[in-house]
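Homework help board

Subject: predicted structure for assignment chain

Our instructor gave us this sequence and asked us to write out the predicted structure in token form, then describe one feature. I got the tokens but I'm not sure how to describe them. Can anyone check?
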Amino acid sequence: MAVGVFDSGLGGLTVLDKVAARLPEVPFVYLGDSANAPYGVRDADDVYTLTCASVERLWDAGCDLVILACNTASAAALRRMQESWVPRDKRVLGVFVPLIEALTERQWGDNSPPREVAVKTVALFATPATVRSRAFQRELAFRAIGVDVEAQACGGVVDAIEEGDMILAEALVRSHVDALKRKMPEPDAAILGCTHYPLMQEVFQDALGPNVSVYSQANLVAESLADYLGRHPDMLGPGKDSLFLTTGDPKRVSDRATQFLRRRIAFDKA
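My token output:
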């Protein structure tokens, strides 16, 4: 009955933490492709190939349902995977859907015409690959009109977080927020469009100011997954054990993960 959670590195642990707390009876298998991180500087074909390989490894671990807890993979690879690669008895879901639902206050299956929503200006902070894909803007435009989105590619932030250099990560976040605010001085809302970024959420909020609503994906994904499994219990795979897997050095990744989540995390080699 296991569910897979995939990220290019350690950022997806922010999602895993919330979904595991929301669904304590479900074993989760987490796979971080740390050997190839970060994905945010790679082209779409590269992201697609790497993501497919990791998803197949999670299928082998007994996870019929895999959550791409990686915005770059969700933006650059998910649609292509779903249209031409994922077999009928498997599912691969991304992290954009719950976020779009929250912003537009409508369910994903609501195919009525786009309409005006309360939020008018949105700052999107994401990796360069996610920004290039324009996936967030595309999905939002299907459901809402009159929303101005300003995207800021946050180069270097993921690398700093993966290296455990939070001082550099904070400096980079503040620099990127300053750059965004020069283009959009007073956004209504801000999207942390990378699952690494919740680790810096307080810095984003402080730099943006108290009047900006900052949307982080982890809690939204947890509620969405609980709802999905309630409607599709057959998608719980045959795996029975919770695992942490990495394509990188297990000891180094375990130490970093323990630092992030402030509890002991032990990774095995994928």
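Reply (TA_rk): Your tokens look well-formed. For the description, you could write something like this. The chain has two domains: 3-95+218-269, 97-216. That's the kind of observation they're looking for.
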